[in-house]
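== Sequence, structure tokens ==
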Amino acid sequence: MSDHVITRLGHQGDGIADGPLFAPLTLPGEVVTGTRTGQTLTDIRILTPSPDRVTPPCRHFRSCGGCQLQHASDGFLAAWKQEVVRTALAAHGISADFHPIHTSPPQSRRRATLAVRRTKKGAMAGFHVRTSDTIIEIPDCRLLHPDLMRALPVACDLALAGASRKSGISATATLSVAGLDIAVTGGKPLDCPLRISLAGLAQRHDLARLAWDDEVVVTLRAPEQLFGSARVTPPPGAFLQATAEGESALLAETETILAGARRIVDLFAGCGTFALPLARGAEVHAVEGDAAMTDALDRGWRKAQGLKTVTTEVRDLFRRPLLSDELSRFDAAVIDPPRAGAEAQIATLARARLPRIAYVSCNPATFARDAKTLLSHGYAMGPVRVVDQFRWSAHVELVTGFALTPA
């Protein structure tokens, strides 16, 4: 065994030494030794620890794959996540100012996808062991909201009722205003006996809603989410920001960027995370590729009081981005694309020359690519706010504004 100096963290949160050689659960500046297997170190011993190394707050951390970076101090993680964004922008020749990072507190995740399987003695639910298909139970998880932890025994009962012995199920659990909203995939076909069993299980656990492979089995109470003053019932498993605190930070920044706008287009609108709160002061046109989500958004708007007009459009923005003439009736846009970014839509936004754009991103690399397009078309980029909803993970989210500069 030879010694290795960790020079940096990779995008998955692993330490990297010269080679490159990947060393999980290490930090820059540390001297380590271990067994080399291909490009990975195993059986790692820390010879010289980093001053940023801390005791992980969760007893499951060493095995659980739910978190990657609990061994690093909060200050280190904040600086590192901002540096990930800074480096992505620098690769395109872009420099940026940064607002302070917003980090969601421990035990604030309101949504999680649990891995569940039957065992000889019953069932188990939790997350996968790091780099493995093995499931680890997480009774003392420091990531999930305490109310979401109730989903663990529910998931076990779901596996006993409807999972085969050969394969497990996935249970996406979401906190709603009315309680737990659970959507299961990978289970047995939904026949009449299973439907009756699942309905009884939902009653016993007082679930708001239970869906099985995209079919709603029972709704005891509408599993509503609050977007501003609107109450929206998303379709099962629909996208939702990971924490209420993170959503509030993204929204507050977006509202500041678009303050005073009268006609806003919301691109990749989902169920209305931004569209509905923004409608307190502006007319909003919400565009989303999933019809079930736009329907939920529209119903939420129609029931809400005091909002300006919100219209919806079902459209695949990757294949059919809104064109410049369609965008010309708006004076601002908010765009929150998936990890692939929005290359085609950003190109038409740039040509349409809307005065202001709020860009929310979950991928610094594709954000930087899209930012370069906007900057090359006469926009100036404002300060970047990194929003860390996925605490102790390598995931990085951000929001910033672009304003058209005078010709």
